[in-house]
User: Fold these one by one.
Assistant:
Number 1:
Amino acid sequence: MIENGASDGGPAVKDTLLSAVEADLVRPWYRLRFSPAVEARFEADTSARRSHLLVIAGLLALVTYNLYIFNDYVIRPESLLTAAWLRFGLMTPLGLAALYAVYRGLSPILREATMAATIVIAMLLSSVNFYLSDSPYSFLDTFSFGLILLVGNIVFSLRFGFALASSLLCAVIMTSFVIPYGHTDNAVKINTLVVFASSAVFTLLANYRLEASERQAYLLLLRERLGNEATLQDNQTLARISTTDPLTGVANRRHFDEVLAQRWNEAIAERTMLGMLVLDIDCFKNYNDRYGHLEGDVCLRQVAQKIQHHVRHELDLVVRYGGEEFVVLMPDASASSAFQAAERIRQGIEALAIPNAGVPHSAVVTISIGVAVARPTSAMPPSTLLSLADEALYQAKREGRNRCVLAQLQESGSSTQTHRDTPHATGLASSSDEAKR
Ligand SMILES: Nc1nc2c(ncn2[C@@H]2O[C@H](COP(=O)(O)OP(=O)(O)OP(=O)(O)O)[C@@H](O)[C@H]2O)c(=O)[nH]1
């Protein structure tokens, strides 16, 4: 019943819609229409399917209407040509044109009005058909005119307002042909009008109930769908909160632990390398003491953004590991590419030129980075990589800060060997070359 055609809008729009749906669920029993927002959503969700069903029902009704030519042949053979003209020359093209318009897509009001018009036209042509015949049986047809109402009110299930209007028009048309008809007694005429009026009342009642149930079912489904979407959104928000560092927006340590284990296993399975950078802002205590904790937070955010800017967005994971320490996890990274990325980050942060007065090695905020790269094996725990990168970081600190140090874990039989490089900003080319070797 609910199609996916309608745009769902943002969370605020959904909340408003959900409140409107709740209010509509307790609207007075006699009110079919929803509040404007829900009505618009109802139409958007159901109109394509409704038009489709109306076209199918309309074609069936048209075929049935034309089959009544056999009835004409039996009860009014002398005016068969007139009947054929009314059915095939007028009703069929008009009906097909109306159905084509509905198929192409009309506004809800035009769609209902078009379908209601086909009912009124069918009643008019049927009335003309019986009226023009002199056959003593021709009037018999009027007893089946209630079927026309049945098609409009039940088979088409016209929206109630249109069902009511078309039924009233049909009643007026029929009465205006029945009353002046000359070949039948008044008692029979009254009888046929009473049968027709009863058909109108019962089919309208059924029509009202059908529309009311359709609308109620739609409201319940829409409420459930909006509720599910809200829950899904809450879950996604919670998942994001639980994996993200609130200050910087990068991944938090909890998320890092999960991803590290995953990437480690993938690297074992695919026999690829895994790189890790551990980054620590130099003399950040001094920065905080001098510029205040709030400025310190701003600095942390800038540094996190810069790190993210210099890594592969799809592949690498940037993490705030704690305090002023970050980690970057780099799947499928060689020693040289990991070191180059580290160097790009280091230079990028220096280029931010965030003043950090009063520190011995630099007038601006700088960062030291320990780089480690390994080909993981099942015999090696993931923490090995972190320890190596951490050791390299401390070496960078010891050697004067604002530098990258590479600690490369190499496979050589069963033993592992640590290779460290200690390039300074001025000796990058040689260090990168060494890393590549
Ligand atoms: N503004 C701010 N400061 C933080 C946050 N977390 C940790 N810090 C500060 O980061 C500073 C870390 O200082 P230290 O561990 O002494 O290291 P450092 O001064 O950076 O010195 P080195 O690492 O040796 O270069 C401390 O002053 C912490 O208060 C935070 O979320 N916001």
Number 2:
Amino acid sequence: MDAERKEMILKIEDISKKFGKTTVLRGISMEVKKGEIMGVVGASGCGKSTLLGVIAGMLAPDGGKIMMNGKVISEECNVLAPEKRHMNMVSQNFETCSHKTVYENIVSGLKKSWFGKTEDGELVPEVIKLLHLTGLEKKYPSELSAGQRQRTVLAAALVTKPEILLLDEPLCSLDIGLRVEMRTQMAMLFRRLGITVFYVTQDPAEAFFMADRVVIMNKGRIEQIDTPQNCFMNPKTEMAAALLGIGNRVPGYARVDGGEMIDIGGGVCRTLGRDGIHENDRVTVRFRAENAVWTGAVRRENSFPVAVEGSFFEGDHYRVMAKMGMGETVSFLSREYLEKGTEGYISVDGGRVYVYRARTAA
Ligand SMILES: Nc1ncnc2c1ncn2[C@@H]1O[C@H](COP(=O)(O)OP(=O)(O)OP(=O)(O)O)[C@@H](O)[C@H]1O
């Protein structure tokens, strides 16, 4: 999207948050443009929900400042109440009103006025259809599945057309078919309405799909904030790579300055290289299973010997676990089932191998 030309809606400066003695958010800063969809990913407990709570005004930060449309909404004790923020949040512990029907739950937020304005509910029929709630309008929450209740809350948040919508794993209770369909529909709706969205998900693929930019969080900090394409092609830190699911991890030594050639067990691995890596540095290379192919007895470019430990059916292919030269377990995809103990080569796409300086000294 042409976010470059859009105006800024949110500016977050150096936000920190503690619960008791535990620091949960550290130095969080970012600027978000109107209509941007921000995907937030990170391991469980890294502070994603806390960040959303702070943005929504449900939690007061311990330090830092938040500005929305150029006005301070959070600074020290000066925290604007959630209902005055023109935001809506659907948290993981979402709640429906048990004595109201699905329809009544959905329209209940419309009477809330954002800065004196009452929403007219023009989106209600569309959102009911989009979230597959047609036919359930007269039911009460106790008659619904968890996924249907979650969609009711999501619908109630959407119909008010908030300026900023904060969604904490909004599709987690849905089956895979509905999940894929709904994320497509929602991504289109957000863009059509120009709503700015923070979308927390455990699934990097979902963040890539939905978002204009992805915020990769680790232990309360932002590890990387970038477009899905840049996050995918160049995770800036080894932790970002790990959080994006780039699971194969092999230690080695840089052969050259820049790290384009790495000695790993069984051969020399070509990589994308990285600034700041010097010859003989201890490094770690990471690559996706999808970027390594089984070549059997044939040794190709960027090939390494492996011994198969097990093959697991995944539909179109098998995911094979194998040991590399120095005993590291790696995984790759193979069209054929490979017996435990089979020896051969995998060839790794050097344009998809990421190298990082090792975190500790040798
Ligand atoms: N109200 C609270 N009181 C005390 N500690 C809390 C509170 N809320 C969250 N925490 C702690 O803060 C840390 C971050 O929690 P948070 O829910 O923000 O993580 P998360 O990244 O959203 O995790 P998940 O993906 O599992 O939902 C966790 O260690 C959690 O136990």
